Structure formats: structure tokens, C-alpha cells
Amino acid sequence: MPDPLLYWKAMGIATAASAVVVLAILSLRRSASEVWCNAACVIGIGSGLAIGNAVLDLNLSWPPRNGLDRLLMIVIPAVLGIEFMAGFSRVPRVAAWLLRISLSLATPRILLHGSVYLSTTADDTASRAWITMVVSGLGLTLVWGLLSWLAKRSGGLSIAFALCLAIQCSGVAVMLGGYIKGGAAAIPFVATLMGASLALRAVTTYTPNRVKIDHADNHVAEGIVGVGVVSLFSLLFIGRFFGEISTGPAITMLLAPLLCWTTELPLLRNRKPWLVASLRLVMVAIPLLFVLIAAKQKFDREMSPLLAIVVTTGFAHEKRAHRNRR
């Protein structure tokens, strides 16, 4: 059963850990460049994820046995490594994006490794599986590219928060679909992305002279976007193929952060930053809210009767045991 106290504990510790690591690394230099800020965020996110997952005690195993294990032990270290290297100016942009695209195309195959979807011998089923993996990888590439472009174009802390909203929504949807462990894995992602983003914003806002970045007040580290997009996609992919999330809601949650692009319309582009940020979050939250309402209704319709039977049976056994002791 879900343990809300444990979830809050993991979120608080992961947020604090990632923020402290980012602030500590940025304090090592009198002037931090964009490369240094990105490296600090990547290391902070990695540290926060390690600590947060340890608090949740997800019982990961090596070699990985399921999609969640492969996400946390293969995919996430890979994206952290890619974003760390891609932040350096000596790494050509083309090379960085080739690495990102390669990971995007490989992620569905990694998550489905050893599953029934790939172990079938039927030609039509195998071909559908490969088509699904290719289309999913291209979808991940598209979302990653568009959000990275928006982060470079106009930036804003709201992009990171929009990703956090979508990731948390996906975690709740996965839980409501019956995969509690998979849904709980979203908590450290949300916590570390928020912690790293807020720490970086604190530095760029209160000590702007120490940051050598153009438009530092709107800067979003590439590592934050990369980890956020890949974790969102992977959680939804796991929920779709190993949980009870249907394709429509999964696609909706994956594409929801792209609604941040609506503020690039000429009518909204030059509005005050707080208004632009608010509009972005509202636009992203609307479809996510509809998805959560539908998921809750499905849960009440299909799962609540089963839980009621379990609770009633457990109460009856406890009452019978108490009577026997008397």
C-alpha cells in the first residue's frame, strides 16, 4: 500500500540534497559559466535521485529485472552522462544531439528488454513491437528537441515546473493504474528537478555577478530539461506497457509540457515574466487535470470494489482471530 509519509520524506530529502549539491558546486567558483551551472545541476540531480530512491527503498537489483530497474540503473545514468558531456563547449552541438537522439531511440528497447512484448515468436506481434518502439523513440526525440529549443529561446523556471507537473501526474496515474512502485519512482524525479532548478535560480537572482550567462534570470540548464523529458517519457512508457495506463492519456501527459510554447505567440511573447510563467503552468495543468480525473474515475470503477473486499476480508480475519484469543 502507498505510504504518504515515506513519499513526503523522500521528496523532502531529495529536494534538499539536490539543492545543496548545486549550491555547493556553484560556490566553488567566483564566476560560474553556463557549462559550470549545467554540470552542477546534473550532479545535483544525480545525487538527489540516488538519495531519494534509497529512501524509497525500491529494491532495485543488478542485473536489472524489470523496466523500472532498467530506467533507474541504465537509462537515467545514460542521460545524466550525456547531459554532463553535452554541456561542455568543446563538444559540438551536432555530436551532443546525436547522443541524445541515440538514447531516445534506444530507451524503448531498453525498457522492454526481456518482456513478453519482445519474447513472442509471432511475426506480426514482433513487427508491431518494433514499430511501437521506433515511434515512441521518435516521439521522445521530438518532445526533447522542442523543449530544449524553447529553453534556449526564452527559458524560464516555468519549463522545469511544467515538467515536474507532468512527471508527478504520470506518477499518480501509474499508481491509480495499479503499479504503486512505478508511480512512487516519480517522486525523486520531481524533487530533484525542483531542487536543482530552485537552487540555480537562487544563484542567478541573488548573486547575478557570479554567473556569466546571458539572460541569467531566465536560464534553464539543459540537463534539467533532458532528465525531465526522459524520466517523463520512461515513466509513462512503463505505465503503458507494465501498468494500466492507456495510450491516449500517456500521450497527453507526454505532450502536455509542449503547451509552454503557447506563450511564444505574438500576443503573449512580450508579457511580464510572471504572467508568461503562470500561463505556461495553467496551460500544462489543464490536460493533466483531465487525465487525473479520468484515471481516478477508472480507479473508483474498477479497483475500489476489489480494495473494499480486501479490507472487509482482513477485518473479518482480525475479528475472528480476536474472538479465538478470547
TrEMBL record:
The keyword Transmembrane applies. Keywords: Membrane, Transmembrane, Transmembrane helix. It comes from Allorhodopirellula heiligendammensis. This is Uncharacterized protein. The chain crosses the membrane at residues 6-28, 35-56, 68-86, 98-118, 130-150, 157-180, 186-203, 224-243, 274-295.
